[in-house]
Amino acid sequence: MALTLLLLPLELQFIIVKFLAISNGWPWSKDGLPKVYTRHVAAVSLVCRHLRQLCLPLLFSHLKISHTDQLYMLSNKCEMELEFASRIRRLNLSYLYSPVQRGDILPTLLPLLRSLIWLDFPVNRIDATLLSIFNSHPTLVTVAICDIDLVALKRLSKLTSLSLSKLRVRSALSTISFGLQDPTYRSLARRGLRIVHLNVLDAYRTTGGPDTFTVSGLEELEIKLHRQRTFPMAWLPTFVPRHDNLWLVTFNASASTWMCNPDVPFASQFIAALDRESPNHTIHLVAFSISRTECSSDLENWPVVHAEFQLTGGSFNAGFRLGSSLAPHLSSLKIQMPTHTKRLVKFNDFIASISLFQSLERLELQYLYKNLVQEKISWPIPPFQTSKCIIAHFTLRWLSRCLLERLSFLHFIRIIDRGVDILPNRQYIPWELDVVFKAGSNGEVEICRPPVHLMAEQYSVPDLDAPLDYSRSQTEEIYCE
Fold first, then answer.
1. Which segment of the chain is annotated as a signal peptide (predicted)?
2. What is the pTM of this model?
């Protein structure tokens, strides 16, 4: 294997090693940036000296430091080995733990990192001195921080008048106390603060709109609607063109709120058509997103790419049919079932309804297991006594396999579920499941990331990566408690 790799041209060798390291991230990641995983690259680097030199730039390009002792060790190594320091391009200090007060090492370390372009850093540690060091760094482009209510940044802005253009806030809230019209908010924006995701919560600020205000770096806008009419479409058509990087606008509301905001696209059409066709429907729209495309720069032509529905009963076929008709380009779908009822959904009906969304790429199912109706279906089951958490895993893995077979563009299915195990001593132990399935080779279903199985200690987790064994399939009466 190693000999074969070494026979390839150097460019191909590097492409292969980079492919082992770079992942596009799973679809529900809070940060859409590619992540680097070094486990496989580290194994390749141990083969020979040539491959080690090839792997070194990737092995140390992304570092995460969680303790100040590690930070001091890194600083000492960078001082002694400048070539090593030049390999570091991204440094994550967001969760830096300091058990003992020590002198700040960053003013010494950062100038040594001459290729650093991205720094994740806790916002409450940024002062005027450190901000000045960030701004003067020749290659540092982004300092990613988390300050959802912008309290720390408001405090920092009172201490210094330096530029904030290198600071990048992942998500920020626009609330009644601190909204788009707030002078302090606008002052932060004028100093170059970048906000990637802006969540507009209150009706008053949404109604007022941002006027000619521009949010630097804005990529996603989320608007929470209320019973009071907010008319977001009155200001969005002028707000969106000022933000070239804005690609996603999300609307969310309760079931009774959509009709109080009739100017919101898709929602008013969907609910009106659903009420006409199926007055007793049990499907409710929770949220939807529209996205900019290369051929639809005009906001009115942005297609619906994501939708979230809540099902409160078994009468949902008409809703999914209308949803797939009004949103033919839907690529992401989230379905939430109630946790207080059960036996609402039939396997075949549910699979047929989801299969209407032919462009679907990502699917999330919450609390589906206990709502599966009692019926006889042939499916592979674990041949041993175990937690309902494992039974739910196998059951919903089988359901995912059926959906992946029918939807050619579907790549990921996330399952979130919970329930209760009743032990022989009548003890009630809750269980939780969080797993992401993806289409694998030969039609098999693979696990995308390490799953979460929280259950009673006496239950062990079997080999969940093994292929579904249909030779042991049984016609079982599914009864999900």
1. 1-25
2. 0.83
What are the structure tokens assigned to 275, written together? 């009420």
Q: Kindly give, in sequence order, each residue whose CB lies less than 8 Å from that of residue 152, ignoring residues fewer than 6 positions away.
A: 123, 124, 126, 145
pLDDT of residue 194: 92
Q: CB–CB of 208/180 below 8 Å? A: yes
pLDDT at res. 477: 41
Determine the pLDDT at residue 480: 45
Alpha carbon distance 31, 36 (integer Å) = 13
* pLDDT computed for residue 470 by the predictor: 47
Cα separation, 76 vs 80, whole angstroms = 6
- Residue 448 domain flag: no
| Domain hosting residue 41, numbered range | 1-59
Give Cα separations from 383 to 128, 251, 343, 481 (angstroms): 63, 45, 24, 19
Alpha-carbon 436 to chain mean position: 12
pLDDT in tens, 105-117: 888 899 999 999 9
- Crossing angle between the packed helical segments 347-354 and 388-406, to the nearest 10 degrees: 40
Say what the pLDDT of residue 23 is: 61
Beta-carbon neighbour count of residue 201 at 10 Å? 15
The pLDDT assigned to 444 comes to 77
Residue 331 exposed, middle or buried by CB count within 10 Å (0-12, 13-18, 19+): buried
Tell me whether residue 14 is in a domain. Answer: yes
Question: How does DSSP assign 280-336, residue by residue?
Answer: T--EEEEEEEEE-BTTB-SGGGPPEEEEEEEE-SS--HHHHHHHHHH-TT--EEEEE
Query: Is residue 11 domain-resident?
Result: yes
pLDDT at position 375 is 61
Helix (H, G, I), strand (E, B) or coil at 263: coil
Distance CA 428, CA 418 (A): 13
Tokens read off for 445 = 């279903």
**What total of structural domains would you count in the chain?**
1
Residues 6+ apart with CB under 8 A from 410: 360, 361, 362, 363, 403, 404, 439
Domain membership of residue 38 (yes or no) is: yes
Q: How many helices (H) and strands (E) does the chain have?
A: 16, 20
Calpha distance 285→307 (Å, rounded): 8
- Model pLDDT, residue 61: 85
